[in-house]
Amino acid sequence: MRFGESGFRLPILVGLGLGLGLAACGESKQANPQASGPPPAVSVIKVASTDVKPTAQFTGRVEAVSKVELRARVDGFLQKRLFREGADVKEGELLFVIEKGNYQAAVDQAKAGIVTAEATLKQADIEVGRQSELVQRNVGTQAKLDEVTAKQGEARGNLMAQKAGLEKAELSLSYTDVTAPVAGRIGKSNLSVGNFVGPNSGTLATIVSQDPIYVTFPVSQREILALRKQGDKANPGQFVMFVQLADGSRYAEPGKLSFLDVTVNQGTDTVQVRATFPNPDRVLVDGQLVSVVGEIGKGESTLVVPQQSLQLDQSGTFVLVVDKDKKVQVRRVETGQAVGTNIAVTKGLAADDLVITEGIQKVRPGQIVQATETKLGI
Fold first, then answer.
1. Residues 240 and 222 occupy one common structural domain
2. Backbone region of residue 366 per phi and psi (left: phi > 0; alpha: psi in -120 to 50; beta: other values)
3. Which of 24, 229, 246, 284 is the most buried (most CB within 10 A)?
């Protein structure tokens, strides 16, 4: 009976063993579904050298060369707004019109007063001439001549007052046209047509000049001394300034130092420095916070890679490169100064090495990959 039971169990155990083996094989195949698939695709750049100059970096603020707040100089209802908010305006361009009725009437009244004053003066001149002739013929009195002469002076003074009144009235009338004192970009209108405006009604709109534009930044005394040692003390304009934007890219137009303040901020021991930049495409905006990079001296040929290719672990900084066998390798590197969106590499790489910039997260050292080369942006 026991033998029979043993003989019965043996085929079952063998069958179970075969079944488990086949299941294990199936699981092994499912665990590595990409073993026979194509290698992962990555983007690489070829390490290249470029001239890198010594730089100093500061935090700066964009400032308009001219910033004008438009205000009403006379009282009246706002009749017209002749600009599009956010548009560029030219110097002298008509922007607002305040109702003119009362001011035009004052001009007409002043002109009428001048006509009356001229007639009065003409009559006074005639009377003075007549009394002078009578005195010369000894038939008139000096007292009468003095009287008409005084009236002549009053008439002349009244005419001058009327002319001054006309100038004042015409000036007030001209203030009903609010024009752009500078060229630039105009902001939103703070008051709409139909509102009563005047000298106390606040800013109508603001005009900010666009091109060129300033970038101001504080520089410590130590940095100023270091910069002067590397450049010509008598010519600060030789320092080439660049702006690094919020996305890490470098603004295309270089600038030049244009102003160094004459006093030091005692709280921070810094001097306010200003650089002037062309701004034809309106990329730089008044009030914008930017990084300012100053380049000085002569450039040295240095290897650079994109900053996005750098990786960091407990052992330090490294990049992944693709070798001649299309395998991924780890290279420990030492880096220098930033160059726009790139960074200088002082150790660990050689020219023409292929550094992975995209697809880093899906590959591992020793793995074969399919690399597509892209150009290095300088």
1. yes
2. left
3. 284
